[in-house]
Every structure is written in structure tokens, then in C-alpha cells.
Here is the input.
Amino acid sequence: MSTLRLEYVAIEDLLAAPRNPNAHNLPAIAESIRRHGFVEPVIRDDRTGFLLGGHGRVEVVAEMRDGGESPPDGITARWEVPAIVGWSSRSDAEAEALLLAMVNLTKQPISDTALLATMLQDLAADPDGLLGTGYDDASLDLLLASLAQDDAMTDPNSLWNQGGPEYQQGERRAAFQTMVNFLTREDAIAFWEQVFGTREIRTQAWWPEHDGLVGQTEEVEWIARPTDDDD
Amino acid sequence: MTDPTQPRFPIYIPSKSRAHLGYTMKALMRTRTPFRIVVEEHQRKDYSDAFGAERVLVLDPQYIRDYDTCLPDFDETKSKGSGPARNFIWDHSVSEGHDWHWIIDDNIRIFFRLHDNQRIPVGDGSNFWLMEDFALRYRNLAMCGPHYSMFVPSRPKTSALTVNTRIFSCNLIRNDIPFRWRARYNEDVDLSLRILKAGWCTVLFKVMLADKFTTQLLPGGNTEAFYGEEGTRPKSELIVRLHPDVVTMKERWGRVHHRVDFRPFKQKLVLRDDVVLPEKPPLEYVMRRRAGAKKSRSPGVLDTSHLG
Here is the structure.
């Protein structure tokens, strides 16, 4: 079993994984690191030297260094960042599986938006309280407004009918679909002959005609054409 | 008050090797709806001859070079799809000072309004105007568009629209959102998901519909380059890799399918502060059927002349 250790590693020695589907909000990460420091270690695969987690933070820190900033809290004067080391993948596939798991399992949409709004409101009591959280006053305002919407804002027909042209779907002109499966093609042809008086079976996409408006019938495919066997 | 028979925002159609077909172009010309086509330089003449030079914009090749296919080992000799043209269109719309833009696939045959289980062909640009009007009511709506007619049943339970789902083929996009198109395949799913994950809403209209030729049926476009040689597996694999939290892939009946779970996106639409919803639809919303249009399969069965 591998023993994990926390080490400070130069950012040049932390290589980006060859494939990483995760995009990063770099300005928000930079704002967070400037406020809170570098508090979450990155994770490195000892076998490959590639990062498993922390790509965005390493990219931001490199930009801060190249931009002439001082090292933020949590980073050494030589721009070494805390990294969890000691884990080695057994294959490239296993490394990518862990990378994807970390992306997937940490990026679930927030389920309790009401609690989120409460926590953000508490932070926003301080003028700089939202700094580095990835949220700002505008997004908090929008979140609160969303929570305040009544049920009409989730009902599709209410949404459209509030100011839109009339929309209703009555029973009278509805089209219903019946799916019939036959054991053999001969059974299907016999059914078709009984109902429509023809051996030519088609599937059709249609909606009903009625007085004054368009009914449209489209041939989609023939399903009972004579085959070579029939000839 | 804008003209309710015309879209407020520009319509763009990225197209490739389909100057001889041009279904969307013809549909819009029939309804006197303005649009522009974005093509590569070597096809400019074909499209100019077919639809008029004033309607043709040439794609800046830099957009092709800069486009992120999201495929690290991508063979640059292969087609990158319509994504580069989509980003060119977005920036072109911004450069003209528009707040939103329409981007429509080139295989739409006709646009419908659905009401009382009837698919009523729309005879002018009022369908676009109505969807724009809806979009402009909300602070947090980033993208919307009509559903495909073939996916919307004529049933009593069919709702007017779906909130927070994939918008495809005919997209009205807010220009100031911090995204651009990417990925070689499924770029519409990817953009929809990135918008939703950032907390914005999307709306797919069923009260307004688009009728299209099935993907992979028409020649030209990216059909041959993508599906002819490669099948659909790379397409599904890419979107699963980009969004493993909400996209899963399964192989059923010998084919690869991917499924996107939009259920986690529960954000509600938020009305703009200055919007007051009318109790009754205003006069300009009343879409009437033109007299004498019985049995016609052509568009133009709606008459909005009473609006002017």
C-alpha cells in the first residue's frame, strides 16, 4: 500500500496530464489564492510525474510568478507548492480513471441552493466577504431572485402563456400512436389488406387533417416491399 | 416596438458543400426573413450564385486554426466541423453590436407554430421574434431555440417548452455569456452543458418547431467527413469525456448511444426587473391563419399583415 506524503514541489516539476477534459475559471482561482493562500495540495502521480488534480491552481501560480507577484501564503519563496505524493498508478488507464473520478466526484451541481444562498448572504455581510469564493454580488442576487420565483416560473405552459400567443393542446385534434407487432410479415400484410385494402405497407408520420388547416403525411419507409424472395 | 414579423437579431447559417440544397436558406427566403450564410472561401461563389453575394460571409481561416476540437491527438488535415464557423459568427454578431444572435443549421425545411395539436407553418419571421421576445424577459436565460418537429407529439400533454436542456440546430444565443463553441462533435450538447453548469438557464420551445432533414441523411456538410468513416462512437466518447458527471454511454442494439442527464439543473428563470407581463397577449402576438390556405403544404399560411 502506498504511503502518502506532503511535499513542496517546484511548479516546473508538476506536469499537466496529457488529457484533461476539465476547464478552469482561472481568474476566480487566482482571486481565491490571493485571498486564502494556496491551501489545498495538488496531487501527483509518482509513476508519470503528471498531475492528477490541481491543474488550474498550478497554471494560475505560474502566471502569478511570471507576472512578478510575490508568492502567496502556502507557497515557498522558491515557488514550490504543496503536493500530495506517494501514489503511483499501475497504468495510464488507471491514472486517467482517477483523474476523471476527481473531476467527476468534485463537480456535482449544488443540490441545496437555499443553503448556498444563506451561506453566501452571511459572507456578503462583509464587503469583501465573497472575494475568492467564485461568487459575486451579481450571482448572489440572481440566486436569490431564482429562489424567490413562484411555481409559475417552473410550469412550462404558464411560462409561455404569460404574454405569449395562445397555446393549448386539446384532446380533439390529438394524434395517438398505436404500435402493433406481428409475428410474421405475412400477418402484417394480411392486417394491412384488411384495414387499408392494399399490400403496400408504409410507416407514416402524420397529424390529423381538419377543416381549414394543414394535415401532412410523410412517407418514412416502406416496410413490406416485395423482396427478392417474393419475385 | 420592433417589427414583429422580423427577427430583432441577425440570423447566421454555417454551411458547407450544400449550396445546391440550402434548405434553411430557401425556407427563410420564402418567409422573407433576412439571413447570412457563412462559408469557406473556396465555396463563396457557389453560395453567392445560389443565394446572392450579399448574403454570403466568408469564414476567417484563423478561426479554423484556433478551434479547440478537445481531441489532443487530432489530425489537423481532418475537418473540424462547423465549430470554427460558429465562433466566427458569434464574434461577427458582437462586432455588429448585437446582444444576441441566431445560428441555424442548413437543413431546416420549414418552421412551425404548434397550437391545439396543429403544426402551422409560419409565413414570416414572427416565430423568431416571439422566441426573442420570450428570451428578453429573463435575466438568466442564455440560449433558447425551437425543438425538432419530429420529436414533439401532437398530444394533450405536450408542454409549451422545456427549461434547462440541450438546445440544438436553431440556437438563439446571448452574446455576452463567457463561452465559445468547442469540440469536434456534439458541440451543441457541450455548450448547453457548460451554460447550465454555470447557472444559466436554457429553453427549448415546443410551441415553436423546426422541421429538419435527419442528420447523416443529407450529403455535404460534415456528414461524410464524420460519420462515413468513423461511425458514432468517437462522437459519444468525446462528450462523455468532457462531461463525465452528467453524460453516460451505452452500447445497445449494436450501436453506441450517449445519454445526458439534465435533471441536476434546477435553476429557475428570473424575470428582468423592468418586465411587466401582460394579462392578455398583446395584439402583435396574435398569429392568424391566412384565408384560402386550406390544404396548402406551402409555408405562408399565416398572415401577419394585420400587425402593421
